[in-house]
Amino acid sequence: MKTIINALLILSFIFSLTLQAGEVVSRELLVSTLWVQNSAEYALLSAHSFNQAEASLSTAKKSTSSAALEKNDLSSINRPPAIMVEKLSLASWNIEWLMTPATYLSLKPGCDKVKQPASNERNFPCTPGRPPIVQRKAKDFDALAGFASQLQADVVALQEVDGPAAGAMVFRQGWKLDCFVSRQHPQKVGFAIRDGIPYRCNPELISLDFDGKSRAGADITIYPDSPNAVRLLSIHLKSGCFTGPLTGGNAVCSTLRKQVVALEKWVDARAAEGVAFALLGDFNRRLEIDSQFPAGNDESAPTSLFAAISDGMPQGAKFTRATEGQIEQKCSPNDRNPPSPIDNILLSEKLFPANKMLNFKRITYTNYQIAKFALSDHCPLQVDFER
Questions:
Q1: Averaged pLDDT for residues 213-224
Q2: What is the number of other CB atoms lying within 10 angstroms of the CB of residue 288?
């Protein structure tokens, strides 16, 4: 904290001197002060940048016309090299209907007994024959927080979390909960970001919710406006079409297929921009099986999710799956679901070149933990890699 305060004082002093001299400070230098809010390291970097710029500006006066200075032309100033983030750790976790106790109690009396509520409805289902949505107690949130503490990630993509307040019940000290989609339905997607990591929320990918009953994607950039920038999309796609060609003919696969088309457009746009990016979340699709199908000849009706979005067109639209080549593992020994996961993390080739190595882990539960606590029907997964 003292480092941040000292850095701010230095910046303020230099800035006041600059204004007194009648000089205009460049936008880039002003923006750099914002890094101080997130990291002492960036505060020091910003102060260093200002000091370098101040000294360079003094020298530039001797060789540059006053007209150039008035135009704010500081392109000749030597700026210090940017600090490169050499390692990155990303995680994803669907926490199954995570709501605050107050939200649960307010929605339970009027729960929908007929259908799954639409995106613009503030409600959850309680249709006959459906497993009831469990009311979590303090011990359950504490247990979930214990698993969250095992994640050594920089950013965690979240699914089925009812916004920042619910997320903060699990991701406690040292995290920011942000960039959630605007959906009224309690099943939202968003992010938990480790304190000290700069980020920017981008507009949500609303095209994934093309029918008003599906889930939009949450979009974030970490280390924005720097060489370390990475664009991340947290997704929770349509459930029920786990294997087989997407052109199978049933309504669920048809919905997922339309989402894949929207997802491919987002991927292609990022690849065309030349940025590093990743997709994280609940694909509701067993990608190790899905990847065996071809994309198909019609981009508007793909056969395979993975082949469609990882076709190398445009250049950069190519992914490494976190689960590729990994030992398949159930979330708990008695898990009713197959071991082949529907949760995944896909890393673009600019973010993670094919010749690199990544560390993958899936944090699982014991049968005792499942019996004692209301956890989740999904378990968290994490990838660590060097950039």
A1: 98
A2: 18
- For residue 6, pLDDT over 60 is answered with no
What is the residue type of 296? G
> Which residue do the tokens 């746009």 mark?
269
Structure tokens at 380: 């968290």
Contacts of 190 (CB under 8 A, 6+ apart): 158, 161, 163, 164, 167, 177, 178, 179, 180, 181, 218, 234
110-130: pLDDT as tens digits: 999 999 999 999 999 999 999
Token match 């720097």: residue? 226
- The arrangement of strands across the sheet holding 155-161 comes to 175-178, 189-194, 155-161, 87-98, 381-386, 358-362
DSSP per-residue codes, 199-223: EEEEEEEGGGGTTSSS-PEEEEEES
Residues 6+ apart with CB under 8 A from 284: 236, 237, 238, 239, 240, 241, 242, 256, 342
The DSSP symbol for 35 reads G
In the chain, DSSP finds a helix count (H) and a strand count (E) of 11, 12
Q: What is the DSSP letter of 147?
A: H
Q: Residue 96 in contact with residue 160, Cβ under 8 Å?
A: yes
